[in-house]
Amino acid sequence: xxxxxxxxxxxxxxxxxxxxxxxxxxxxxxxxxxxxxxxxxxxxxxxxxxxxxxxxxxxxxxxxxxxxxxxxxxxxxxxxxxxxxxxxxxxxxxxxxxxxxxxxxxxxxxxxxxxxxxxxxxxxxxxxxxxxxxxxxxxxxxxxxxxxxxxxxx
Length: 154
Prior knowledge:
Blueprint: H1 2-10, E1 22-23, H2 31-44, H3 51-62, E2 66-68, E3 71-72, E4 88-100, E5 103-112, H4 117-130, H5 132-140, H6 143-151
């Protein structure tokens, strides 16, 4: 009990998404470059420690994070959970599309989740992407549009 409380206090509570973690109209790049960039955004915002970025690349080697509907959700391997300091996401949009192992991706959302929170995050994003209009607006919208769709906030 004592240790559990201590661990909870160590987890910093942050917003899941900040506007500065949204980059729109990105120029196409390789899948690994994109994963490293979105991962670095998570590092720079204090969600994860640097080794998590390599764990995101590692995950992609064993299992594609392409989800369909032009969406990829890169995240770290299970062993990297210790590198997660707070749950958060970072978003990059590619209106021209990028190649993701033969699939065309327009929206990349890097995910870091404390404990099992990544499952809730994945579920919420998947629900939003089921709406074709929202998916299109995510891919082509400005920062405020992306923020509003993913957070429900203005």
